[in-house]
Automatic annotation (TrEMBL):
The UniProt record lists the keyword Disulfide bond: no
InterPro entries hit by this protein: Oligpept_transpt, OPT
Alphabetic keyword roster: Membrane, Peptide transport, Protein transport, Transmembrane, Transmembrane helix, Transport
Protein name: Oligopeptide transporter
Intracellular or extracellular location(s): Membrane
Topological type in the membrane: Multi-pass membrane protein
Keyword Transport: yes
Length: 175
């Protein structure tokens, strides 16, 4: 019985998308298409770097839907799918109502829609420390007043601030 060790070597030449655009687009279509035909037919695998992302519309909708989702999720469970379904027509409406200019750079696009849904999803969870303060007040008669609420607010805002920074960094095109 002989042991055959097979060595795998990486390709010495890789495809640089900026240099070899023809081969890169062929590989992009073959490798990054979804294996599910319905998704591959609907979702494009091409990026449009010229689409505006951090627009006034995005910030208004992200703050609005984040507040609404976190408020409703404090009392009942509301899925982020609802925000995805509501935010698209709302974004189209805002794009139609706002005058053209720096506040409205063009039609509402898929990148803005995804970021609104992502931001609302980050903010949609409840602060579990609220449960502790409510239990302390209801069952033990202890009220922490402003201090506990301030600590809950600051920890939540710190987490959302870091999520916002990561969204901005990930959506910024590389030079």
């Amino acid at each position: 019985m002989t042991d055959h060790k097979q060595e795998y070597t990486a390709e010495k030449y890789f495809i640089d998308e900026k240099v070899d655009a023809e081969r890169a687009s062929i590989n992009l279509e073959e490798e990054e298409n979804s294996p599910i035909p319905e998704v591959a037919a609907i979702v494009s695998n091409k990026d449009e770097p010229g689409l505006p992302v951090m627009t006034f519309r995005f910030w208004v909708m992200a703050v609005l839907f984040s507040c609404l989702l976190s408020f409703f999720n404090q009392f009942l469970t509301l899925s982020t799918l609802v925000i995805q379904l509501i935010s698209y027509p709302f974004g189209k409406f805002i794009a139609r109502v706002l005058p053209s200019g720096p506040l409205n750079p063009g039609p509402f696009n898929i990148k803005e829609h995804v970021l609104v849904a992502l931001t609302a999803n980050c903010a949609g969870g409840t602060a579990y420390s609220v449960d502790i303060t409510v239990i302390q007040k209801v069952f033990y008669g202890q009220d922490f007043c402003f201090l506990a609420n301030f600590l809950i607010l600051t920890t939540q805002m710190l987490g959302f601030g870091m999520a916002g920074v990561s969204v901005v960094i990930s959506s910024t095109p590389l030079p």
